[in-house]
Amino acid sequence: MSRQESLSSATKEDKAEPPVTPLSHYLWVLAALLALLALSAGTALIKLGTWNTVINLLIAVMKVLLVISVFMHETEARKLTRLTSALGFIWLAMLIGLALFDFLTRSLVPAPWG
Amino acid sequence: MNAEVLQAPAVEEQFDDPTQQREAATLGMWLFLATEILFFGVLFASYTVCRVLHSEGFAVASRRTDMLLGSIETAVLLVSSSLIALGVRAVRMNERRLASWLFAGTSALGISFLVMHGFEYHKEYEEHLVPGLDFAQSGANAPAIELFFCLYYFITGFHSLHVFIGVVVIGVLAIRIARGAFGPRHHTTLELAALYWHLVDIVWIFVYPAIYLIGRAG
Amino acid sequence: MSAADPVMAVPNFLDRDYRLRAWLTTHDHKRIAILYALGITFFFFLGGAAATLIRLNLITPDGALLKAQTYNKAFTFHGVVMVWFFLIPSIPTTLGNFLLPLMIGARDVAFPRLNLASWYLYMGGGLFTIAALVAGGVDTGWTFYTPFSTMFSNTNVFLVVAGVFITGFSSILTGLNFIVTVHSLRTRGMSWFRLPLFVWGIYATSLVMVLATPVLAMTLALIALERGLGVGVFDPSLGGDPLLFQHLFWFYSHPAVYIMILPAMGLVSEIIACFVRRRVFGYRFMTYSMLAIAVIGFLVWGHHMFVSGQSLYASMVFSILSFVVAVPSAIKVFNWTATLRKGDITLEAPMLYALGFVGLFMLGGLTGLMLAAPALDMPLTDTYFVVAHFHYVMVGGSVMAYLGGIHYWWPKITGRLYSESWARFAAILMFFGFNLTFFPQYILGYEGMPRRYYSYLPQFQVLNVLSSAGASVLAVAYLLPILYLLWSLRYGERAGNNPWNARGLEWQTRSPPPKENFLEPPVVQEAYAYDQAAPNAGAPPNIGTQVSGGGPGGGTASGGGAAPTGESLQ
Fold it and tell me: Above 70 in pLDDT, residue B3?
């Protein structure tokens, strides 16, 4: 039985839900999440300059991907919901990206009037 | 375990069948989660801009937060996320009592998160780190510290509000599960609540390094 | 089944239950649409009252009518009400709510109770905000720029911001509802590229509503917090930046204008197709264009900040992207024009509004391009040129399309025909009044008259008087539809299922439709199948005359009515 529930082929009878994820998946993911937490806390205590921020950000992203792809799997599996979850983050990236671009390029060339 | 009469889902009149209804509900919830990302995203955007402008001040300020409590809170939320995911799984396997306990456990962990955070706030209040209420810091970094703590209270405040709402809803659902309101073929509400709780967790996953882990290596 | 047979005794959605409580607790998207229409109209005239004060004050250069701060409160009132309580909800919540399920062949939207909740949030937030605007007012402009709004204004900023915050959730929930509806509830055979362009317009609009409005909500919350606490992230003394506010505010507020225009574009496609009797030219490009506008529209917000202190490089990037976003709009204008070419055009009132839209939107859009060039924006920003630009697109564009849509679907919604000659007169009067009001403002802006000033230099008076005169004509033109449309509810000729002989699923059911929308499954055709006969499906027409008269084709009892001609609808 395919785990993908295809919208276009929905029929009148109630489709059976996908098979239940094994318990071990959840436990491994929890272990991984806690390990990542320990890693981020640990590396924060080591002086790595900009890399601290980079590592922390990467770890955060990995944690989020684990939560989304495993804990939220049943509903996340549809293409549409994957797109929806991506959309929120992409739009936020657009906001932060372009706004930061302004702040980071201000001193390069001052405006003609100032 | 009792033999359950498997509940038939009630289909609202605008839907043709239960599958369509369930898929619509989950799509709606995912869209709502996207709006929450953008809602909190404004705070993260403000944080990013301010931190880029005042990186040293933010590092000094971050050292004033309680990293131990923050780390425990993070662990608590991660565990609670797995509990509620397991809870939904239990309902799908028709293990009602287990599911009810798992939902109750999630709610309890949420409460513990709020309590710990309350302790954080209290400590910060005593150290005069509450802008607008009681803020008294000195030195060249004082303005940046105040800026940092403005963001800290805004972000954790909105987040805690969302945790509180989740705690209440999930607690109520735990009771309803125990009373047999849900079954393997009828538990969309639980899935939606779990999605909400995972979002609360996801937001915190980003909050934690942003607030607690800057400049820790001194 | 001929017209002589007794009609099935199924009540339409209006007759079903007259009690007020039934209306206020309804889950029916059609009733919710009407509830919204009442609110929208109410807020429109409130915003118009503020505009009246503004234009009266500007008749004389010394601004004798209002004190300076009162004038500031007047234009703030006008902006807040017109943007958030009229323009943004107008088409989606009225025509969108009513038509979306019908056009896709569904029984209702995906989440009817959420739909009702959206209306309560809208009305509650709206009335609360109006109260705050009236009892003391706000003088910051609808844009709430910091640090004035957070630190220096002595007015009801907190309350107004709170009211708009509440109303924002109405927008978010409506958008969410519509997106899920279009994905989940299309009837069998209604594939994406058979959807009417109005549905595509609503869909694209809903994407914008869902992705942009949360940003506004939190930004307003930050203003409120900074005002309440006396400290916040926009505070320069802490190292915050007022420009951060502008970035966050315009990230929402620029896409917001696409919320206002995309549904209007969808409406115009529907109307033009019907009154040219053919498919819209370049259907797929029309859909891609609307999606492109929705997406690219999120990347151009910095063009509101060219003179605010934004970096030059950022200004360049935003300028280029603003030029890019004009391309899909231009494609749409070309395609509407191509649809008209060698078509069988008739000029009923909806068509007059739609054609007015195309011309005025084009003018407004072109002047937007001028403002998108930083070199031109330098002298033109914060002048009446900008005011003229956005009124051309929002009023000459969106409002005209909205009125066109109201007229076009009036028979479907109410089961009555309005007076065509009065409607045409109002449309033409509106076009004339609109241009008299706003074209002089382009010149005023070019000559240097600043906006948001309660007084001006004497050399600007002639044009200001012309503009105010135009505003009075416009006011009459807006009041007329209220009068003849309400009149038609009682005395208008009853409409059949399809008085325009249009295509689209909504025309296959009765006028007004029954609560469940379709008594028999509608027949799905390709979009705008004007080269084919109207499907001979759906319930027999309700009691009353089918449109008949001089037009070819004659009145028939089921399915298509007479081809629309001017005289037959009098």
Answer: no
Contact C100, C183 (CB under 8 A): no
Judging contacts by C-beta atoms under 8 Å, the chain A residues touching residue B86 are 23, 26
Q: Do B24 and C228 touch (CB under 8 A)?
A: no
List beta partners, residue B134: B130
Among chain B residues, the shortest Cα distance to C209 is held by B35
Structure tokens at A84: 């929806």
The confidence score (pLDDT) of residue A110 equals 63
User: C interface toward B at CB cutoff 8 Å?
Assistant: 101, 106-112, 172, 176-177, 179-180, 183-185, 210-215, 217-219, 222, 225, 228-233, 235, 237-241, 244, 247-248, 516
Sketch out chain B's domains with CATH numbers.
Answer: 18-216 (1.20.120.80)
Closest partner residue to B34 among A11, A84, A95, by Cβ? A84
Alpha-carbon gap, residue C93 to C117, rounded angstroms: 12
Distances from the Cα of A102 to the Cαs of A96, A106, C223, in angstroms? 10, 6, 21
For chain A, list the contacting chains (3+ Cβ pairs, <8 Å): B, C
Residue C382 corresponds to which tokens in the numbers above?
């914060």
Q: Is C25 helix (H, G, I), strand (E, B) or coil?
A: coil
| pLDDT score recorded for residue C518 | 93
* Residue from B49, B163, B153 nearest C222 by CA: B153
Which residue type occupies B17? D
Instruction: Confirm if C108 and C187 have CB atoms less than 8 A apart.
Output: no
pLDDT tens profile B13-63:
899 999 999 999 999 999 999 999 999 999 999 999 999 999 999 999 999
Phi/psi for C315 (5° steps) reads -60, -40
A-chain residues within 8 Å CB-CB of C251? 95, 99
What residues of C are in contact with residue A87 (Cβ under 8 Å)? 211
Q: Could you give the CA distance from residue C4 to residue B49 in angstroms, rounded to a whole number?
A: 73
Q: Distance (Å, rounded) from C-alpha C231 to C-alpha C158?
A: 14
C375 CB within 8 Å of a chain A CB:
no
Longest dimension (CA), chain B: 69
Chain A contact present for B10, CB below 8 A: no
H-helix or E-strand containing B57? helix B55-62
In this prediction, residues C285-298 reach a mean pLDDT of: 97
3-state secondary structure at position C160: helix
CB contacts, 8 Å: C184 with chain A? 7
- The torsion angles phi and psi of A33, rounded to 5 degrees, stand at -60, -45
Task: Please write down the HEC assignment for all residues of C518-553.
Answer: CCCCCCCCCCCCCCCCCCCCCCCCCCCCCCCCCCCC
Reported ipTM: 0.93
> And the tokens for C313?
């490089």
